[in-house]
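Troubleshooting log. The previous structure file for this entry was overwritten by mistake, so regenerating from the original sequence record. Sequence copied from the archived sheet and checked twice against the printout by T.R.
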Amino acid sequence: MATNSSIGQCATEAARDARSAHEQTLAGGPLGIVTRNSSPAVFVDHETGEIHTVGRNKDGSYRPILTPEQSRAKRWARKSVANRLLPESRVSKCMNWRRPNAGNGLADIDVCKGTHGKAFYQGLMACGDIWGCACCAGKVSERRRLELQAAIASATALGWATHFVTLTVPHGVGDDLDILLASLSDSLKRLSTGKYSLKSQLAKCFPGCTQHGYIRATEVTHGEHGWHPHFHILVFTSPDLSPADLRSVYSPAWQRACLLSGLPKPHDVHGVTVQDGTKAAQYASKWGLEDEMTKAHTKQARGKGITPFGLLDAVLDGTDPVYTKPRSSALFIQFTKSFKGRRQLFWSVGLRAKLDLAPELSDQELVDLPDDDRASLLATLDDDDWRAVRRFRQEAHILTVAESNPSLLRQVVQSLRDAMPVQEPAPEPAVAMPQPVVVPLDDATRDQLVLDWVNYRNSYLKGVHHGKATTKETAGSLLLSPENLGGSGGLDRLLASPGLLPSPSGSAQLGFTFDCAYALRRG
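Regenerated output below.
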């Protein structure tokens, strides 16, 4: 049984071990044994005793076939990297913060188990960002895949032909991703509108043949020649149109659209490829699945590029000499900024109505849909529980425990809380009391300060505006002059002046209480 610390690394280690197993097998090394009698193959690691299921690629290398638990751990591991790389985005809050309920505060964090046997969290925020969030991308892709399968099934029932079209364009290391995407968007617009549109050219070259609609998926990889965005399109046409006929129209139309948009001319052979409905059905059945996501390792090993989520794997692994941690981090940040707000799947206008499918939901609406209306509640996590789960990055492991042995769920959560470091409250800082500053003054300086202050105060009592010259009419007995205080004992004569106001006690005052310490102590 794997330990808690190994669960989050199992997927990456399985991929690395599988690649190493293939190399060691070719070299006759003793690291592990790959059994080839069954399909898929099985890799046995003698050091740990673990058994890994691997698939074989066309070039003879191996790729790991992850279990559902390993795939989920991989998604959460990728999510933790994206949280660090995008701290100000919605991705960092997704599946971390409690979801607000309108007029009812914050939702509880519930651990539920559906009728399909899968556990999931309920009550957490979901960002719906399919480009930057591995958790939301998995949920959205799975539901989009079901839509693609339903579309192909409906098209087949209507007697339509389904074609799988791939569009690419030459690219280089120095290409700016934002400019490249803008030019590709303009090319797609030229391809679908105007008198030179694909639909018009198809009707002109093959009268009687009709394009009923299409579904376009946007994908991107990064390789030795920089970013490589490309498109996979499911094209629905009348049944009498062959893939070769469709390519004869698509290829010149795509080349013209790219040249008018400022892009290089696509390759005559590889710029446009068209395959029949069998390939379209295979693509729809695998689109968005985990084994498609793990192909990033295979593509990287074959030198054909790495997917955006493969960049997050490179940050986690940290052993790739080409895609180092700093480079992979910078590339992923650039990718999310450039693709923010773009649609991954686009349906042509009116196609869903022709196929009798429900109106399309946005990515945010898809992730907000309940996972299972008939799910059973296993546990409710409070803030301290969730803080401990996140601290040790055991989000995926908690769901695994909920699926395999729900009775241990509370015990596992409590063990995480007990392992939390104890934080003693910081002592309150002592507030320093202000100390008066004693300024030694002689009698003359003291009397002058008192005189200036008294005249300042009495000018307001007489209605005099400061900053203006005092006229004779406004001058009075309360505006004292230095001669009234001249010599020693001037302060005493000031207090006995006839212009002072009488106090209730019978002593002369200036309409306020005068404290000798004011002139002697300033602070």
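The first strand starts at residue 32 and ends at 35. Archived copy saved in two places this time.
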